[in-house]
Model the fold of this input.
Amino acid sequence: MNGAQDLGGMMGFGPVVPEPVKPLFHANWEPRAFALTLAMGATGEWTIDMARFARESLPPPVYLTSSYYQIWLAGLERLLEERGLVTEEEIAAGRSLVDSRPVKRVLAADKVAETLARGGPTERDAATPARFKPGDRVRARTMNPTGHTRIPRYCRGHVGTVEAIHGVHVFPDTSAAGAGENPAWLYGVAFDGREIWGEDSAQGVSLRIDLWEPYLDPA
Amino acid sequence: MAHEHPHGHSHNHGDHDHGSHMDETDARVRALESVLVEKGYVDPAALDVLIETYETKVGPHNGARVVAKAWSDPEFRDWLREDATAAIHSLGYIGRQGEHMVAVENTPEEHNMVVCTLCSCYPWPVLGLPPVWYKSAPYRAKAVRDPRGVLADFGVTLPDRTRIRVWDSTAEIRYLVIPMRPAGTDGWSEEALARLVTRDSMIGTGLALVPGEAEGAAQ
Done:
């Protein structure tokens, strides 16, 4: 969706403000919100793509004025409420008010290390040959889906060169919609800065974007 | 009682806001945790382990070891070029948000910078959790359009002839920048070299420290 999460190329936010490595968190609630998000993600009640869609579905004024852990928190609440796991009233009350179904899995403390080590690999076996090969010129499709997608607006309609084939990966657009993994070939595509930004780009800048086959046409 | 979502407030520099908004978010996170624990969805001990993992075990010191080894060991560097996931795994760094790794090497001709314009994708096993700026609008908006301007925000100037390549992490491939090895470090141990490798140098918003700079550098 063309939400506030799709930030590439926007102006007016001011300079980037560097920060040291420590402290890692900036408020007492942040590590708790972080850990709750990971622990609930491990229940298997939603995919990472569904979680991203929940976050980017925040209205743009809200998204742009929230800190990232606030965005995570709002996304988590949305996922929980959508699935009937927790109600708004329960969060307000701070206790369970209705019986809820059990989740598929609960992350136990002694399973955290192995669960993190396993991660969530997205590569799948190929069912079809790759349509493109390194060196091929491709055009990022002009498309504006209302659901989740991982093709940034700034590259849509522009021509780049396939540089890498990453294998076949879960397709986020359908995974986020609950319509299955539909694994598709994933490519590393290079775009010249001038192709994307025109004369307003500095010389000698290039962009490398990972794009799935359904986002690409031959150019 | 009414608990509004923590929205509509200004947090332009991440989480550095104070006062009642943060108290409100703090209360809401506590309430949510209580509900999730009471329903049996999360194990509170698992939350503690998750937080401790990223506060003490996983962080940019991991990536610094990878870079120092790449600087010292040509065979490892070749392996990193061919199969970064496996090479990095050989040092014990694996899993969530680093399932599919690619290492990109800086040279005098080309400098690499990594961003996620759409959310906050970041190579956790080697760098830990991302800094606030990495997840915030100024960086996500500017990196793809004006990478030299971003470098200036970090106090870094590159020669005009150095090309800049920006990697937008739109899929589940995670990128680790291998900064250039500083001059004057011939014969240094991997341990000593690792102390020159900053988090920002592995994102591409900074350079490795030069000998003498490492003292007192926050890692």
